[in-house]
Task: structure prediction
Amino acid sequence: MDIGLGLDPSLRLSWEQQRQLAQEAVGLGYTSLWTPSSINGRDAFHICAQWWGATAQATPGGVATGISVVPAPQWTATTLAATAGTVAEITGGRFVLGIGTGSIYSADYRHTYGMAELPPLAVMKDYLTTLRGLLGGQTVDHQGPAVTLRGLRLTFRPPAVPVYLAALGPQMLRLAGAAADGASLNWCSAEQVAWSRATIAQGAARVNRDPAAVHVQEYIRICVDDDEGVARVSLAKSILSYALARAGASKEHGYRGHFARMGFDAQLSTLEARRDAGASDDEIAEAFPTELLRHVAYYGPAAGAASAFTRLAQGLDTAVVRVVAARPGTDSVRAAMQACAPALSPVSQ
Result:
């Protein structure tokens, strides 16, 4: 199993801090660096190129980088393929493109970005088909609900770019098994990882594909601080936007449905009612179920981080330490990095 490191914009790191931490990650034995992507934040592709350049100064060839994930419907398939291919060229083939739906099942999200209402599964099938074709050097003819291309190919042939699909529910997991190079999981228990792998295998079987060909990767949140209460609240704040459904929104789709499948529907419904009655995010974070946090992540002193990470990483091909900072600055980031350093974790052996 490979162990990667995930850093995200919530850490508020400068470019120099990012480059320094990337180099430190090499020394700690991390084999890849990962970032999420948003359409209105710093460009994740450029971040990956910067990180790779920094690691290339610390180890020959640098380490792999990846985006988990790009909200694909906010891009055209052509620009996404060209951009991913360019980063693959820069990094010498050490780049992974993860794609997901964003929140296209949400009417508010579609309104914000001017998107049509389309079936999420069909949208991602379109993107997987066209992206993998373009990145593979093919001339692509495809007509679907989300992507139509007629005789288009890239003007350059990049190194191989694995395309991973963000998948939580059974339909997306089966699609990953049938049509993606990998599946990007998120906020999973070890049991949920095992269920996900079995569901991916179902999709692979439908097209006579070896399920082992589908690489399974996941972010595992780690928040390290000697003050367990501070770490717990920081982790809880990082999960709120995933776990709680907006007022009036479906509780069956996306992350809300994902947490419900793991048995936390009643607890989350209680928190949603408190929020809708006027409770602040700070109050909701204080009340967030400890059982759920422990089920999918780790918070607390450094001494317990590696064993928790090992437990949560079972069944993955790439387990990514997604840093949640307990306090501002780089000390909290380094604490999580060092606590789960591959050299200290039995999962990497």
Notes: The mean pLDDT is 94.
